[in-house]
Amino acid sequence: MQISTTHNAQPVTDARLAEILANPGFGQYFTDHMFTVEWTPAEGWHDARITPYGPLTLDPATAVLHYAQETFEGMKAYRHEDGSIWSFRPEENAARMARSSKRLAFPVLDEADFVQAVDELVAVDQRWVPDSTGEKSLYVRPFMIATEKFLGVRPSQHVTFMVIASPAGAYFKGGVKPVTLWLTEEYTRAGRGGMGAAKTGGNYASSLVAQQEASAHGCDQVVFLDAQEGKYVEELGGMNMYFVFDDGHIVTPATGTILEGITRSSIIELAGKLGHQVEERRFSIDEWREGVTSGRITEIFACGTAAVVTPVGSLKWEGGEVPAPVGTELTMKVRQALVDIQYGRAEDAFGWMHRIV
């Protein structure tokens, strides 16, 4: 792409930026610029530009506001000790967005253009990438929305792809702690033939009421079962799951109706290198209950871009509870190995890291 750049005439001051980066939280502050490119059937992708960050002007009849035709990605940029800036497997985010785009009847943005858009925005706003202290990073959010002004149920004839970025602190303040899970027996996240494998906002919106249910019962996250039989574990509201058995092998629920997480696939490769066989298969809630009770399941963990890897504690449901598994040793070993690669503290034997600056 040919990308034009208009620099922000009033960027955040160095002093204010230092305050933000000292305690960025998550998704609260945004960098000085944003990337935009548009698509129409006649022109294809065109007018790629980096401009000062600011509000969008949308007509009330804009299609995305009525029919939720949109996709997004979540990824991070990491500053290494030598000051260089890297992203983690950006081509996988590009490929997943292409799959999501096809499911949402969007045009597909080429992988190279996706990566270029992210790289150039991060390069322009590189001062916003924190140092690695406390696992800080720059969270990058590419997204695609239907921007045609039209009230009709069909694929939008005007599409806008954007990238914004936000500095992020450590997901766990005060150290990694096991999350307590609530098993929802009323709500499901996605069904066969649905949008479960696409990264689209509707999947997250559908999880919110179940998350409220979990919070009301004192739990951190919600576990969803399959929509067809209501017995197989799928994923959490925004994280994939792994079950470690006493013989060292690991099981993770098979995809199809769940999101194919990039952290998820990376852990499968990493665990294999550490000598652990990983099975992708259907995994029932009964196997969870019985496995922990018998001691066959020794660890459970979840993963996602924001939290990386987190141990799972107890599982609760109306009228019952399964206690936390006995250990977290492999969980924390996998987590540390992955984080060390991302921040340049360990050799990247997989070729996962992509240098931006």
Automatic annotation (TrEMBL):
GO molecular function per UniProt: branched-chain-amino-acid transaminase activity
GO term, biological process aspect, one: L-leucine biosynthetic process
Pfam family, one: Aminotran_4
Keyword annotations from UniProtKB, A to Z: Amino-acid biosynthesis, Aminotransferase, Branched-chain amino acid biosynthesis, Pyridoxal phosphate, Transferase
Residues modified to N6-(pyridoxal phosphate)lysine: 199
Cofactor: pyridoxal 5'-phosphate
Catalytic activity field: L-isoleucine + 2-oxoglutarate = (S)-3-methyl-2-oxopentanoate + L-glutamate; L-valine + 2-oxoglutarate = 3-methyl-2-oxobutanoate + L-glutamate; L-leucine + 2-oxoglutarate = 4-methyl-2-oxopentanoate + L-glutamate
Domain of life according to the entry: Bacteria
Position of the signal peptide: none
Keyword Amino-acid biosynthesis among record annotations: yes
Pathway entry: Amino-acid biosynthesis; L-leucine biosynthesis; L-leucine from 3-methyl-2-oxobutanoate: step 4/4; Amino-acid biosynthesis; L-valine biosynthesis; L-valine from pyruvate: step 4/4; Amino-acid biosynthesis; L-isoleucine biosynthesis; L-isoleucine from 2-oxobutanoate: step 4/4
Enzyme Commission numbers on file: 2.6.1.42
Record keyword Aminoacyl-tRNA synthetase present: no
Matching InterPro entries: Aminotrans_IV, Aminotrans_IV_CS, Aminotransferase-like, B_amino_transII, BCAT-like_C, BCAT-like_N, BCAT_family
Family label: Belongs to the class-IV pyridoxal-phosphate-dependent aminotransferase family.
PANTHER family: BRANCHED-CHAIN-AMINO-ACID AMINOTRANSFERASE, SUBGROUP IIII AMINOTRANSFERASE
The protein, known as: Branched-chain-amino-acid aminotransferase
Organism: Nocardioides panaciterrulae
